[in-house]
Amino acid sequence: MALSGRLQYFPLTHALGIGAALIVLFTLLLWPSEQNKPSHQTSYRIEVPAVEESLQPPVPEPEWESTEVKSGDSLSTIFDRENLSAVDVIELAAAAPKSVLQLKPGQTMKWTRSEDNHIQQFQIVLSPLASHTFTRNDEGALQYQLEERHADYRPRYVTATINNSLFYDGSAAGIPDQVLYQLSAIFGWDIDFALDIRTGDTFSLIYDEIFLDGEKIGDGNILIARFNNNGRELTAVRYEDSDGNANYYAPDGRSMRKEFLRNPMDVFRISSRFNPGRKHPVLNTIRAHKGTDYAAPTGTPIKAAGDGKIIFAGRKGGYGNCVIIQHGSRYQTLYAHMSRFNSSARTGRSVKQGQVIGYVGMTGLATGPHLHYEFRVDGVHRDSLRVELPKAKSISSSEKDSFMRKSKAMVNWLSSYSENTNAAVDSTL
Question: Tens digit of pLDDT for each residue in 201-217?
C-alpha cells in the first residue's frame, strides 16, 4: 500500500506529532556542535605573513680607495689626480691642525666618496697603529681625530756567535735587520764593528716584537743587550726616565752614548784610513789623507756623528757635495762626496746625533762611491777611529734609585735565559 494511502488512517493529531518529531530530529542532526563549530578567526580572518626587516635589501658598505703619497705631492695634486672634489681640500685644512696635512712620500691615504666625488671618510695612515681620520657628521661637516690603536708587545730573547760579521751571523740566527742596526748603534761608541770584531764574539739580547690582532707588525726596542767582544763584556740597559726620555746605560748607570758616533754609517767598508803620507788616487801626489773613507753603495744614508749646527752645506771643491757640522766650541765633523743632501740638511740648521744628513755618492775628486769623513778637535784633524770620544752624561741622581732597581731586574732576566729559555717576564719591568 502506498505511504500516502496509509497516512489517511492516522488521526490528524498523530500526523502533526510525527511531523514535529521529524523536524526536531533533522534539526539536531544538522546543527553543528560547539566543539565542531569553526572558529571566528578561521572563518573570517586571513593571516598575511609580515615582511621582516632582515629580508630588506642590505645597504652596501662604502668602497674604500687608496693611494700612496709620491715625492712632490700635495693634497691638491692628489685630489686632482683621483678626481676628488677640490672643495674638500679647503674643508680638510679647516678641520685639522696644519701639521696634519704635511704629507710625506710613502704615506698611504684612504677614502670613501659620494656619487658627486665628495669625500665621506678620509684617512692619512701614519702607521698600523695610528692615522689621521676625518668623518662627516650628521650635518655634513668633516670632523677630525687622531685614531690610535694599542699593540701587544711581546719580548723575545735571541743570541748568536759571530764567525763572519754581525749582520751576516745575526741574520742567520733569525734576528731582524732593524734590531741588528739598533745593536750596532748601542755599542757603536765602544766597538768598531769594522775593525774590532773577532771570530767567536757573542751577543745576546731581549727585544720587543709588536703584534696587532694576533699578527706581527714589526719590531720594537732592544730592552737589554750583552756583547762579548775579544774578552770584553759590555751590557746595555734601556731606561726611560720620568720625562719620557729613553737612553741606554751600563748596569751601573754610566751612559752607553758618547757625544759622537764612532762611525757615521751603519753599512760600510773602510777603504782608506787616516794617513798623513798617503798618495792621492786622483792627483797622484803625496797628499795627507786627513779623514776616513767609507766605501758603500750610492744612496747609503749618512748620519750626523753628534748633536750640532750645520755651518756649511753645499759644493766645496774636491770634496764635492759636502756638509760641515760644528759641535760646541771644540769639535767639528765633515762629510764629503755626497750624491745628494737630506732635505733637513741646510746651513744654519741644528741636527741631532744619528739624524740623516745626506747620501753616499762620488761627487768631487772621487774614483768610486764613498763617504770621506773628517773629525777635528780645536781645528786639528784627528783619526776618527782612534780618538777618545767624550762621554755623555750618566743617569741623573734623581733617577738613580729607580734605574738601579730596573737594571738589576733586567740583568737577572737576561742571565736567566742562558739557563732557561722559558724565563718568565716580569710585567713590572
Answer: 999 999 999 999 999 99
